[in-house]
Write a structure and sequence with these properties.
Number of helices of chain B: 14
Radius of gyration of chain A: 28 Å
CATH architecture of the largest domain in chain B: 3-Layer(aba) Sandwich
Radius of gyration of chain B: 21 Å
Structural class of chain A: alpha/beta
Distance between the termini of chain A: 40 Å
Helix content of chain A: 40-55%
Shape of chain A: flat
Number of domains of chain A: 4
Strand order of the largest sheet of chain B: 4-7-10-1-11
CATH superfamily of the largest domain in chain B: P-loop containing nucleotide triphosphate hydrolases
Shape of chain B: globular
Number of strands of chain B: 11
Helix content of chain B: 40-55%
CATH topology of the largest domain in chain A: Rossmann fold
Number of domains of chain B: 2
Oligomer: heterodimer
CATH architecture of the largest domain in chain A: 3-Layer(aba) Sandwich
CATH class of the largest domain in chain A: Alpha Beta
CATH topology of the largest domain in chain B: Rossmann fold
Number of helices of chain A: 23
Structural class of chain B: alpha/beta
Number of strands of chain A: 17
Strand content of chain B: 15-25%
Strand order of the largest sheet of chain A: 14-13-12-15-16-17
Chain lengths: ~600, ~350
């Protein structure tokens, strides 16, 4: 679980040399997707905004029939634009209820592009996922009931850069391809493609493409070996294989189609490497379409289709994911998905939760629909009351009709527990910290808190549990934590600071709980030098103080060290000597700390 | 509902299928919560069940699905002087999509009539449509808090009380609540969790054979839905008959004292709160017996349904690695050994 590299912004993303295979894979994926957009769900593209991404999008667009809806949707879209609602202008003009369709209905038959997908709210993702599953939008809003067809493919532009960002996993699961363009430079790009004509022919042929039983079995086996859980993945791979055959003008799915599909659909989803020792990764310059079996030396006459597929798929596993899978011990899989999961929190800040009567003096937001609704029944009466000679047309809105949107404004905390896992007492301390995390999570729902856990030992610090409220996730991630080694206190504080900043950005209040005996001996440089280590730790602590994050240092030393008190002071933390910390005692300290932190902050009205 | 993936073609997931059938036979059980991994066919199963539900007698065009012999006198059809026709329709399954607004859930002023006629009339919401049927919420753990509160209130009383825009309406809203979701997206509020009669955990099948079968059937269905439906029609019909037969027999299924005693022991040993757990186990076991064509509940019926009826009622102990499912299983093995 030493995936510290993921937290290093310089190592992620795209420090690897560009390879053309990546670009060709992305082109292939675009073609397969264009043949069967709704069936394949879509493509997630990890790329910074820039020429590579633009070129790819333009290429994708050129593969679609002229006039195909191709819409961009902001990741923070509100429900009335996403799903639909009242068209106010038309409603007021005609005096009849007029529906305005949302973007999901408008993009029916086309492609929906969602930039900055890593910032997408879980709630929005769930709505889009639901519509993808059903193929229609069921609108039940603002007094309207309407079902409109919405069959479309999705392109997620994943511009994430940090360890804690990724598009919502629920939506990713529904998209066949997860591609990475971030390593590409402009000069790597070359325009390739069948153009729309090829795609159109393939679309006509798609229904005729035949797939054998043993091919289905092979794909399912690969999924099993790579520990890919969702049953959507093999279905997508089979569909992709059909698209690939159709693009090539064939009615039979061949081995090459399966290789293409498996590389593009299954490889990025790998959660584990197969148990048998894997062959050395083949030459990265291997033909990405895999349509020349000669390039793969491992292929012999006797190899089964599954073996061939496995080799090809494994060679296509993205490098960062591969190294993660290789270094991972027996611990249950989180991998890239774990990184994705880190973003699983809903900023409850500012979600509209209904409307109530109110006045607009305090800068509140008027809810126009609800206001109209309130005013509507009185219109006839008010017009009569206004009497003769009043030519004023339109609606008569009185102040008592005003409705303001109620927003959910909750003050959430994220409790970041930082545990010293070094040295002899580590195991004990670690298991107590685990216990405390689970106790806290047990009540987290009611208290609206999230919990994160950082452990530090040896040379670096790991985010063992990204901020979460899910007990299920926590249990999975906490199993099998390593312990022992040096005390890289400064790295731990830096990571805690980093997580705190990102939590605050997300609208939550971080509380740092540091459990240590204060014997820092590994400096930021990785040197085992006590003086340097302590100096670095004090500097890192100063960062936390400078941001004003609340912190508690729980001193677990049997005989108190003066340095712990000094560090607490540098961090602006409360120093609590607790030499025999147990799970219950620990969670009591945490609770009092987070209460103080919340003290005086008014809660929103739900 | 034509073209929906057939219920009988769902591979494995026996616990989920059984729980849904039990809820169809015994609506007072309090509904079903289906929690589990992504891509395991949670919502497919619910939509498939909808096509198998029996017919009920309703007043034609009544928004509240009133039974012909007990009109509630709420809508124009029921209050009007004209003759009322009765009609058979399938038990409604109302989908509550995310993003629904409160006015569409509980019902509100009919905006169209208000705008065009200046008339104040009540437009019934989803709760009215779901009366005597099912209310299905996908991603129930992502539902906004204020809607959850609202649902809890209605589910507890079986009645929807609307006080807004000068309207004052009260109508029956008895429905079977079915929710599904993925626990990794967030936990369910304990109060809502408690409200569900049965709670089912679905997991991705881990044996290769099952997975291959899932993928093959899904593929066959997507390639040619008509042909696929034809192939599974008879098996679906068999389940439909099973539901109808079981519903009509349910009243007559006896629960022997010995079974009552064992269920009580089971609940005491697990420390479940209140009587709700016990009642649910017994009701569910009766439904299982009825589905199997028995006229008396046997220990085996209890054993089959105890886990989904109880696993969400245990006091949560975060330090217990085993989790509540294992605790229930252990107690069942101990007390209800065959």
């Amino acid at each position: 679980m030493t995936d510290f590299a993921l937290f290093d912004p310089d190592a992620w993303p795209g420090a690897s040399p560009p390879d053309e295979a990546g670009w060709e894979d992305c082109i292939t994926a675009a073609h397969l997707f264009a043949v069967d957009p709704a069936g394949l769900g879509g493509i997630s593209v990890h790329a910074r905004p820039g020429p590579a991404c633009d070129a790819w999008l333009a290429m994708l667009r050129s593969l679609l029939a002229p006039g195909t809806p191709f819409r961009r949707m902001p990741a923070h879209i509100q429900d009335e634009r996403l799903l639909g609602g009242i068209d106010l202008a038309a409603t007021l003009r005609t005096g009849e209820l007029v529906l305005e369709r949302g973007i999901l209905a408008e993009v029916d038959g086309g492609v929906l592009v969602i930039p900055m997908a890593e910032r997408m709210e879980k709630a929005v993702a769930a709505r889009v996922s639901g519509v993808l599953d059903r193929g229609y939008v069921a609108l039940e809003r603002d007094g309207l009931t309407e079902k409109s067809s919405a069959v479309f493919g999705v392109v997620l532009l994943d511009e994430s850069e940090g360890f804690d960002e990724s598009p919502p996993p629920a939506l990713l699961d529904r998209l066949a391809f997860h591609m990475d363009l971030s390593a590409l430079r402009y000069q790597d790009l070359s325009a390739v493609g069948e153009g729309f004509d090829g795609v159109r022919r393939a679309r006509q042929q798609l229904g005729e493409v035949h797939l054998g039983e043993e091919q289905t079995v092979a794909i399912c086996k690969i999924c099993g070996d790579l520990a890919i859980g969702s049953t959507r993945a093999p279905s997508f791979a089979l569909r992709a294989a059909r698209s690939s055959a159709a693009l090539d003008g064939r009615n039979e799915v061949t081995k090459e189609d399966l290789i293409t599909a498996s590389r593009l659909v299954l490889a990025p989803r790998a959660q584990a490497l197969p148990e048998a020792p894997a062959p050395p990764p083949p030459d990265p310059a291997e033909n990405p379409r895999g349509d020349d079996p000669q390039t793969n030396q491992d292929v012999s006459e006797n190899d089964t289709i599954t073996d061939i597929l496995m080799d090809a798929t494994q060679s296509a596993i993205p490098k960062d994911l591969l190294s993660l899978l290789q270094t991972r011990a027996s611990a249950p899989s989180t991998g890239r998905m774990g990184r994705m999961g880190a973003k699983q929190r809903s900023p409850n800040r500012g979600r509209p939760i209904g409307a109530r009567q109110g006045d607009l003096r305090r800068g509140q937001r008027l809810n126009v629909c609800e206001t109209l609704r309130a005013a509507a029944p009185w219109q006839k009466l008010r017009k009569l009351e206004a009497g003769r000679g009043d030519e004023l047309k339109g609606l008569r809105i009185h102040p008592e009709d005003f409705r303001i949107t109620k927003f959910q404004q909750k003050r959430e905390s994220t409790i970041i527990i930082v545990v010293d896992a070094s040295g002899s007492a580590a195991l004990q301390r670690l298991s107590e910290a685990k216990g405390a995390v689970e106790l806290l999570l047990g009540e987290a729902y009611l208290r609206r808190d999230q919990v994160a856990l950082i452990a530090f030992r040896d040379r670096n610090a790991d985010l063992l549990l990204p901020p979460t409220r899910s007990l299920v996730r926590a249990k999975r991630n906490l199993a099998g934590m390593p312990a022992g080694g040096g005390t890289p206190l400064a790295s731990a504080l830096q990571l805690a600071h980093q997580v705190s900043v990102s939590e605050r950005t997300g609208g939550r209040t971080p509380v740092i709980i540091l459990l240590t005996d204060g014997r820092a001996n590994i400096a930021l440089s990785g040197n085992a030098n006590r003086g340097e280590a302590e100096k670095d730790a004090l500097t890192a602590g100063g960062l936390i103080r400078a941001e004003g994050f609340s912190a508690v240092l729980i001193d677990t030393a049997i005989r108190a060290e003066p340095f712990a008190a000094k560090l607490a002071q540098a961090m602006g933390a409360k120093h609590v000597p607790l030499p025999y910390a147990d799970a219950k005692g620990l969670s009591a300290v945490v609770r009092s700390a987070s209460r103080q932190n919340k003290g005086g902050v008014p809660r929103g009205d739900t | 509902m034509d073209g929906t993936y057939p219920f009988s073609a769902i591979v494995g997931q026996e616990e989920m299928k059984q729980a849904l059938l039990v809820a169809a036979v015994e609506p007072t059980i309090g509904g079903v919560l289906i929690f589990g991994d992504r891509g395991t066919g949670k919502s497919t199963a619910v939509r498939a069940l909808a096509t198998l539900l029996p017919q009920i007698e309703v007043i034609a065009n009544c928004s509240y699905n009133c039974a012909p012999d007990t009109p509630q006198g709420l809508c124009q059809v029921c209050t009007g002087t004209g003759s009322r026709k009765s009609q058979k329709r399938r038990v409604p399954v109302v989908d509550m999509p995310l993003g629904v607004t409160e006015d569409r859930v509980i019902g509100a002023l009919n905006l169209e009539r208000a705008l065009s006629h200046g008339e104040k009339s009540f437009e019934p919401g989803l709760l009215a449509n779901a009366n005597r049927g099912f209310l299905y919420i996908d991603e129930v753990n992502l539902l906004e808090d204020h809607l959850v509160d609202l649902l809890l209130d209605v589910a507890a009383t079986g009645e929807n009380v609307v006080e807004r825009e000068g309207l004052s309406v009260r109508h029956p809203a008895r429905f079977v609540l079915v929710g599904s979701g993925n626990p990794e997206e967030g936990d369910l509020r304990p109060q809502l969790l408690d409200r569900f009669g049965l709670s089912v955990d679905v997991k991705t099948p881990d044996d290769l054979e099952t997975r291959i079968e899932v993928v093959k059937r899904r593929d066959a269905y997507e390639r040619d839905p008509k042909e696929f439906l034809k192939k599974w029609k008879r098996r679906d019909q068999k389940i439909r008959r099973q539901i109808v037969d079981a519903s009509s027999k349910l009243e007559e299924v006896e629960v022997p004292d010995q079974v009552l005693r064992l269920v009580a022991q089971l609940c005491v040993s697990l420390g479940t709160d209140g009587l709700r757990g016990e009642l649910t186990v017994i009701r569910a076991a009766r439904a299982v017996a009825a589905l199997e064509g028995h006229s008396e509940v046997e220990i085996d019926h209890v054993r089959q349904i105890a886990l989904p009826a109880l696993r969400h009622r245990l006091r949560r102990d975060p330090l217990d690695e085993a989790g509540s499912s294992v605790r229930v299983e252990r107690a069942v093995d101990e007390l209800l050994a065959p």
